[in-house]
Specification:
Blueprint (H helix, E strand, L loop, with lengths): L1 H11 L4 H4 L15 E3 L2 E3 L1 H18 L3 H7 L5 H29 L2 H21 L12 H65 L5 H18 L1
Antiparallel strand pairs: 1-2
GO cellular component, one term: nucleus
Subcellular location: Chromosome, Centromere, Kinetochore; Nucleus
Pfam family, one: Nnf1
Length: 230
């Protein structure tokens, strides 16, 4: 009986130390985890992400113990179960590492996290230099924060006023052109009116009746002038 043999062996003989060992590291990082420095920048965020993923994978694979497999498959020899367990862990580990590596590549996580390391390093360098031209938020006074907000509001008001001013200038040009056109029309009408008045004065001084041409001209001016006045 396979189950009896397996149980008897487990009671009569001590299990192998390597079969009862738990917490053994089974996951390996796809990328090197050592901290790299370049130009004074310490790149730690991507390696930290790798370590976190490796730790999560290791904790997950640790749950697959020989004891649990014996509870699920009591009819199978412990040596066989241990072999299956190791093979299963190895397959899961390789697939998980491949999936993580693919995610890192597709989302370009290494470049993005390295860029973040550079930004943080640059900020720390500027803070350590105590450059007076650099404004650090932890040293800003409340009134300075309020003043900065007021500056933004003032700039917004200036932009709005400038836009309104440009609109007024545009409409002013249009009105000036219209006024010039009307002024030229009035001047032309005045000149024509002066001519008619002069002709009327001549008729009045000579006490003569106007001829047909002069009369028609007066009627035409009166009609056109009335329409223009409307």
């Amino acid at each position: 009986m396979a189950s009896g043999k397996g149980k008897a062996g487990s009671k009569g003989q001590p299990r192998r130390p390597e079969l009862r060992r738990r917490g053994k590291k089974v996951a390996k990082s796809v990328h090197p985890k050592s901290r790299r420095e370049k130009g004074g920048v310490e790149y730690v965020r991507f390696s930290g992400l790798e370590k976190a993923a490796e730790f999560a994978l290791s904790e997950t694979l640790r749950k697959l113990t020989l004891q649990r497999m014996e509870e699920c498959y009591p009819d199978i020899e412990p040596e066989v179960l241990e072999y299956i367990r190791k093979q299963t862990i190895e397959v899961w580990r390789k697939k998980a590492e491949a999936e993580c590596g693919q995610i890192y590549t597709e989302r370009d996580l290494k470049s993005k996290l390295d860029a973040l390391d550079e930004i943080v390093s640059d900020a720390r360098d500027r803070q350590s230099r105590r450059d007076p031209d650099v404004l650090h938020m932890d040293r800003v006074k409340p009134e300075e924060v309020v003043q900065s907000q007021l500056i933004a509001l003032k700039e917004q008001a200036i932009r709005k006023s400038t836009k309104s001013l440009n609109s007024l200038r545009y409409h002013k040009k249009i009105l000036l052109r219209e006024l010039e056109r009307v002024s030229r029309g009035v001047e032309a009408g005045c000149e024509e009116l002066d001519g008619v008045i002069g002709e009327l004065g001549d008729l009045n001084s000579s006490q003569q009746e106007p001829d047909d041409g002069q009369f028609e001209k007066l009627i035409e001016y009166a009609v056109d002038g009335g329409r223009a006045g409307r």
